[in-house]
Amino acid sequence: MNLQQMKYVVMIAEQGSFSKASQVLYITQPTLSNEVKKLEKELGITIFSRNKHGAQVTDAGRGISGMFELAKFLYKRLAVKLAEKRLLCQRVCKKMKKQRLDECLPLWSRLLLLLR
Fold first, then answer.
1. Read out DSSP for 16-46?
2. Residues 6 or more apart whose Cβ sits within 8 Å of residue 45
3. End-to-end distance of the chain based on CA atoms, in angstroms?
4. At what angle do helices 3-15 and 29-43 cross, to 10 degrees?
5. Alpha-carbon span 16 to 54, nearest angstrom
6. For the segment 75-94, what is each residue's pLDDT rounded down to a tens digit?
7. What is the structure's pLDDT at 91?
8. Which segments within the chain are labelled E, that is strand?
9. Disulfide engineering: 104 pairs with which of 36, 55, 87, 93, CB 3.0-4.6 Å?
10. Strand, coil or helix: what is 98?
11. Tell me: the pLDDT tens digits for 69-79?
């Protein structure tokens, strides 16, 4: 399982079909379908029931999709927190008259510990 497959499941659930999701994701529908099949095989569950009207999330799929939504939220939140800490460190390094962030790595490590 990888983040890309998780993103695919969330998008299919949101769009209600593989073809619509593939358009939003800018990938081919067969690629999307193959990735979901690999994930379903790995997890040993059927995430979507497929029919000519689209894709319906199964009960097992709802649980997985919900977990993936949570993971997506947490990933975005982590990215924001890391960006904030990086910006803070860059400001401190600038005040220390250091040109590059890697010159401040010892300070960066200490800041991360303080800002937990």
1. SSHHHHHHHHTS-HHHHHHHHHHHHHHHTS-
2. 58, 60, 61, 64
3. 29
4. 110
5. 6
6. 888 888 888 877 877 777 77
7. 75
8. 48-51, 54-57
9. 93
10. coil
11. 887 788 888 88
